[in-house]
């Protein structure tokens, strides 16, 4: 059975390419998929007739005890024949319904076959959770099928409405399923039916399940989605909204009725809502002018009727219910298919404009007449057979309850209601046949394009079945008997037959027929009454729309309230939570044990005071540069604190970073306004002060409490030993970076590359990087009055020539010339000694970067390119490559990623060389950091230089001197 | 484990001032605040790692070593903060190029939603999907007894 279900989804996946290759003829191929499933079901006939059940279980999620369990019993067999048989015929019909150039046909074919597969899975599932999965799949595919034409607002709205309503029911059902599964200890349907759980929980669960069933089967008050769904193409209506999907609710009720029909609320909900729906649907159907909508409301009415009869829960009602289910699927799909043909061949569905169609298309009319007669329950059609047994079953219930516990008042009300509903059915059937085919006085005959035989074949076949099945009451009862026998035996012997002999049931059939014809005959009067009673001001559809509007309005209000679009407000909220929640816990904890000293060394206090003063002054400063310089003070102060704490690596890095930051700040600040925007002192300022002070106090509190909180030895206690033994280095911080926690460092240098790329792309909007321009490429705009430096006559810095004289500083150039190489050599020393002494890749890279900064500041951007004639991106890439390579290299020697090896070599002359492989990783880090700084100088330095020059040359069209900067 | 109150004082001051600054509108001030906040948090690592000691270098002298692990973590944090600083500065510069200032603007879309909320209107997407009476291309189902 799993194969049958899966083959549908395979077919759905292939459908788009098939449609592309074959056009609409692809539907003929696709129809084979459900047809095969139909053939398989037919082959199981004898097993099912003998009361046998086919099981097929495939493991799915063993940890959850969830299996793809399928079962084929009597009820499933009937549903499977409907789903696959009508599915195949409707696909066949699609071949002639659509034209090759129908937009969205590829998607439609896929969705349709997938829907058929989901529907098949739904009726075969023997596990409530699997059933739920297929249930929701049908919802999703029906949404896609209803919204077949996404360019039309009506079809979008209808699809969304159907989706929301049925998903709402589906979610309620899921809760119900979980409750039942927990009570019963299993989700297997066959086991639950064999031993149904009882109790209040089960009652609640069953009510939730019914909510899912009645929303799916379009019962009042959810009925409005079904007429809305008529925006779908007619084959969809014929299959989903007549034969298959809307029957899912009926099927679920029929499936669970043997176990739960006596649960409190079951009868109350199903019988009352079903009856209301039956009458309401029939009544509204009589008002419709669109023949498709007429059928849709008729379907609503019939679904109510079906849920009443399968919900009663007696043996004869079960038999009648399943017979009615099959009969309805047969005649209603025929009628929808007929409407599709009428719509295609005449171009209208308005019964006021259709006239004389019966005369011009007699075969079509005959087919519709057969199905209509079955719908109106005329003998000898299967509709009549089923309705006779329904009456018989309900008479039994009305007389003595028939073991259901339904009282006589309710029983007789039910019977009378169903008779009235049937009368309405007769009336709207007559209205449909008259409206579609009759020749109306005063209406010009409608032009009907010729109908191909194949187009009519599917409805004709189904209509014939309606007749044939009417004569096969005996075999039909035998097939349904295994399902009906799950109920206790009824008073009278239930049997489907054309002729039960004269009795109350036959009398009721005659009464409903007569009443229905009367309603049709006096239709003018009925229309007047309809108009008088028209509830146009209020309906469940309006309620749904206003509910949706209210949901949307609430969403707008909530979004407007919470999503203020201001970073400051979001941060305030986050920080307030920090103060309020952990801060509240702090009040309690602050009295606990803690261990605080005023200072580790008196110097600490001095530095701390400097930091506090600088921080406060930073906040108060209105000049950008002043704020940045004061920020630098706090940074250098931190570095001093690091040093005092015993962290020379940190102090070194902090000083270097602080210096580079200052340079970067200044490079950008030269373009920004000197002062921060002058803003009046607002109240929000005090809020900010309050939040800042509270956060500071909370953080201080956390720190004081945390001093007493540590109970375990630090994880780093073993680091010193391991650093020497495995990392081969004595500087533990550096070994931590390149060995113990090398993955962190790996991630970090990747972040550096990303940040540098981001900076460069923000400055060089057009291209990734600036072109490297060396001094030789420089051509002064105005020839210099002095001769260019002759070869052999050394200058301090070659790039200085490219600067305007007033921007040069000879002393700076001289000093740069003197110290540059020293700085670079120092950085190389830091790089290689970092393993054992303060230093390492980060510090070394920053020092090299500072050397470049000095060259740039002294000689301008040409000088920078002279100092480092390489692409920054390439440098960083190389760095990442070296780091990754050195990380992966140990794999080649049977090690693990980032493992270090220590190699001791004795080189002549140089002495012993203690080489640790992680130094290569550090070289990678070094290259990345140098690349980062070079990139910053190129973009924020040289890049902005160019922007300034471009602006100056724009504002001064005739430059009076060679100012290239 | 004894902790220096001086360190806590310095960290708290930097964090408090940093918080005040990041709540500002000027991107430069936000950045200054962020860097200061970062410096403060780096100190917190140091505080939580225990008392001061000698440098964590094996064989570098006598006495207790300071804890090396938080130092390694802070070292990466310091370098990352440089990259962040540069990136935000580039953003401030770009913002200055485009708008002539570096103020962080409020989100325009959010402001539009606030306007809807103030005028009690539904969202745009709702208007696009609903089935209403003012529809242009929706043929409202006609029924008898209801004027079309």
Mean pLDDT of chain A: 87
For the terminal residues of chain A, how far apart are their CA atoms? 80 Å
Biggest beta-sheet profile of chain B = none
Q: Could you tell me the strand content of chain B as a percent range?
A: under 5%
> Can you tell me the CATH architecture of one domain in chain B?
Orthogonal Bundle
**Total number of beta strands of chain A:** 5
What's the β-strand tally of chain B? 1
Description:
Chain B: Its main location: membrane. Chain B: Belongs to the CPA3 antiporters (TC 2.A.63) subunit C family. The complex is a heterodimer of chains A (965) and B (148). Chain A is mostly helical. Among the domains of chain A are: 264-521, no CATH class; 522-561; 731-784 and 793-965, no CATH class. Chain A is built from 37 helices and five strands. The longest helix of chain A has 38 residues, at 918-955. Chain A starts with a helix and ends in a 10-residue tail after the last helix. By secondary structure, chain B is mostly helical. Chain B is elongated, with a radius of gyration of 29 Å. Strand 3 (596-597) of chain A pairs parallel with strand 1 (3-4) of chain B.
Provide a brief overview of the structure.
Chain A has 965 residues and is mainly alpha-helical.
What's the arrangement of secondary structure elements?
The complex is a heterodimer of chains A (965) and B (148).
Chain A: H1 2-22, H2 26-30, H3 32-43, H4 45-49, E1 54-61, E2 66-72, H5 74-97, H6 105-124, H7 128-146, H8 153-184, H9 189-194, H10 200-216, H11 225-228, H12 234-243, H13 247-260, H14 266-285, H15 291-312, H16 315-346, H17 357-360, H18 362-375, H19 382-400, H20 408-437, H21 453-470, H22 473-484, H23 504-521, H24 523-533, H25 540-562, H26 567-589, E3 596-597, H27 602-620, H28 624-645, H29 648-669, H30 683-707, H31 719-725, H32 732-740, H33 742-763, H34 810-833, H35 841-867, H36 872-892, E4 902-907, E5 911-916, H37 918-955
Antiparallel strand pairs in A: 1-2, 4-5
Chain B: E1 3-4, H1 5-22, H2 27-48, H3 68-99, H4 108-118, H5 124-129
Protein name (chain B): Multicomponent Na+:H+ antiporter subunit C
Subcellular location (chain B): Cell membrane
InterPro entries (chain B): CPA3_antiporter_subunitC, NUOK/Mnh_C1-like
């Amino acid at each position: 059975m799993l194969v049958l279900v899966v083959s549908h989804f395979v077919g759905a996946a292939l459908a788009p390419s098939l449609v592309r290759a074959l056009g609409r003829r692809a539907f003929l191929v696709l129809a084979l998929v459900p047809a095969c499933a139909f053939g398989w079901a037919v082959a199981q006939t004898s097993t099912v007739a003998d009361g046998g059940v086919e099981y097929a279980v495939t493991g799915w999620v063993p940890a959850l005890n969830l299996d793809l369990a399928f079962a084929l019993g009597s009820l499933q067999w009937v549903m499977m024949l409907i789903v696959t048989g009508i599915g195949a015929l409707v696909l066949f019909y699609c071949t002639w319904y659509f034209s090759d150039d129908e937009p969205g046909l590829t998607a439609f074919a896929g969705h349709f076959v997938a829907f058929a597969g989901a529907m098949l899975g739904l009726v075969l599932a023997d596990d409530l959770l699997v059933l739920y999965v297929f249930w929701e799949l049908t919802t999703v595919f029906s949404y896609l099928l209803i919204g077949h034409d996404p360019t039309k607002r009506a079809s979008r709205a209808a699809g969304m409405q159907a989706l929301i309503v049925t998903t709402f029911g589906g979610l309620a059902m899921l809760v119900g399923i979980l409750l039942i599964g927990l009570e019963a200890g299993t989700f297997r349907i066959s086991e639950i039916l064999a031993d149904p759980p009882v109790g209040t929980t089960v009652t609640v669960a069953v009510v939730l399940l019914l909510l899912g069933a009645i929303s799916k089967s379009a019962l009042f008050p959810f009925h409005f989605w079904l007429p809305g769904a008529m925006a779908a193409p007619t084959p969809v209506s014929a299959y989903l909204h007549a034969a298959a999907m809307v029957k899912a609710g009926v099927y679920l009720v029929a499936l669970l009725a043997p176990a739960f029909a006596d649960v409190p609320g079951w009868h109350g909900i199903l019988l009352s809502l079903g009856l209301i729906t039956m009458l309401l649907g029939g009544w509204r159907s009589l008002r419709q002018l669109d023949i498709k909508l007429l059928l849709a409301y008729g379907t609503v009415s019939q679904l109510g009727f079906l849920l009443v009869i399968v919900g009663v829960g007696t043996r004869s009602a079960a038999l009648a219910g399943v017979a009615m289910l099959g009969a309805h699927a047969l005649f209603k799909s025929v009628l929808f298919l007929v409407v599709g043909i009428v719509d295609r061949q005449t171009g209208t569905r308005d019964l006021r404009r259709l006239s004389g169609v019966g005369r011009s298309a007699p075969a079509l009319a005959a087919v519709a007449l057969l199905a209509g007669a079955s719908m109106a329950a005329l003998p000898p059609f299967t509709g009549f057979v089923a309705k006779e047994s329904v009456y018989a079953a309900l008479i039994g219930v009305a007389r003595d309850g028939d073991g259901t516990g339904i009282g006589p008042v309710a029983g007789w009300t039910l019977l009378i209601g169903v008779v009235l509903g049937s009368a309405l059915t007769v009336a709207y059937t007559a209205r449909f046949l008259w409206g579609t085919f009759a020749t109306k006085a005063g209406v010009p005959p409608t032009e009907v394009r010729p109908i191909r035989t194949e187009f009519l074949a599917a409805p004709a076949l189904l209509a014939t079945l309606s007749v044939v099945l009417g004569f096969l009451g005996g075999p039909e009862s035998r097939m349904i008997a295994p399902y009906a026998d799950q109920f206790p035996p009824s008073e009278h012997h239930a049997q489907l037959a054309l002729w039960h002999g004269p009795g109350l049931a036959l009398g009721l059939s005659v009464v409903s027929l007569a009443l229905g014809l009367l309603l049709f005959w006096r239709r003018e009067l009925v229309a007047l009454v309809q108009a008088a009673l028209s509830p146009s001001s209020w309906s469940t559809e309006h309620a749904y729309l206003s509910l949706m509007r209210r949901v949307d309005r609430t969403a707008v209000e909530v979004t407007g309230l919470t999503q203020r679009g201001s970073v400051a407000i979001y941060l305030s909220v986050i920080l307030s939570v920090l103060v309020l929640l952990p801060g509240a816990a702090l009040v309690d904890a602050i009295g606990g044990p803690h261990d605080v000293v005023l200072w580790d060394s008196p110097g600490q206090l001095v530095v701390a005071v400097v930091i506090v003063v600088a921080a406060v002054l930073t906040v108060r400063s209105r000049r950008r540069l002043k704020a940045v310089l004061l920020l630098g003070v706090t940074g250098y102060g931190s570095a001093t604190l690091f040093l005092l704490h015993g962290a020379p690596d940190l102090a070194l890095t902090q000083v270097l970073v602080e210096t580079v930051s200052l340079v970067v700040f200044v490079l950008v600040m030269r373009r920004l306004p000197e002062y921060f925007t002058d803003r009046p002192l607002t109240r929000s300022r005090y809020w900010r002060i309050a939040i800042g002070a509270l956060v500071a106090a909370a953080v201080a509190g956390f720190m004081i409490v945390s001093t007493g909180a540590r109970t375990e030895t630090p994880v780093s206690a073993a680091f010193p030993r391991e650093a020497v033994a495995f990392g081969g280095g004595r500087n533990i911080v550096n070994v931590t970076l390149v060995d113990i926690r090398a993955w962190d460092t790996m991630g970090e240098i990747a972040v550096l590359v990303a940040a540098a790329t981001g900076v460069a792309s923000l400055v060089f909007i057009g291209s990734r990087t600036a072109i490297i321009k060396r001094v030789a490429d420089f051509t002064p705009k105005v020839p210099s009055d002095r001769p260019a430096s002759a070869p052999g006559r050394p200058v301090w810095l070659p790039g200085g020539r490219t600067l305007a004289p007033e921007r040069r500083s000879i002393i700076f150039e001289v000093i740069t010339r003197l110290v540059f190489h020293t700085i670079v050599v120092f950085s190389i020393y830091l790089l290689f000694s970092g393993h054992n002494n303060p230093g390492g890749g980060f510090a070394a890279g920053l020092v090299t970067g500072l050397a470049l900064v000095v060259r740039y500041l002294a000689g301008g951007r040409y000088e920078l390119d002279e100092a480092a004639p390489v692409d920054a991106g390439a440098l960083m890439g190389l760095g990442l490559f070296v780091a990754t390579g050195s990380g992966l290299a140990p794999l080649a020697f049977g090690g693990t990623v980032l493992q270090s090896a220590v190699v001791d070599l004795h080189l002549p002359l140089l002495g012993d060389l203690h080489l640790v492989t992680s130094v290569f990783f550090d070289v990678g880090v070094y290259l990345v950091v140098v690349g980062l700084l070079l990139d910053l100088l190129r973009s924020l330095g040289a890049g902005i230089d160019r922007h300034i020059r471009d602006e100056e040359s724009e504002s001064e069209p005739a430059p009076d001197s060679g100012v290239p900067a | 484990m004894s902790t220096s109150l001086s360190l806590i004082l310095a960290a708290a001051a930097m964090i408090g001032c940093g918080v005040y600054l990041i709540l500002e509108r000027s991107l430069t001030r936000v950045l200054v605040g962020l860097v200061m906040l970062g410096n403060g948090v780096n100190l917190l690592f140091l505080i939580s790692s225990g008392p001061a000691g000698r440098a964590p270098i094996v064989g570098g002298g006598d006495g207790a070593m300071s804890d090396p692990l938080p130092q390694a973590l802070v070292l990466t944090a310091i370098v990352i903060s440089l990259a962040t600083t540069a990136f935000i500065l580039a953003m401030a510069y770009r913002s200055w190029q485009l708008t002539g200032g570096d103020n962080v603007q409020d989100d325009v879309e959010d402001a539009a939603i606030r306007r809807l909320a103030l005028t009690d209107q539904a969202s745009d997407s709702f208007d696009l999907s609903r089935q209403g009476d003012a529809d242009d291309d929706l043929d409202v189902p006609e029924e008898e007894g209801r004027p079309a």
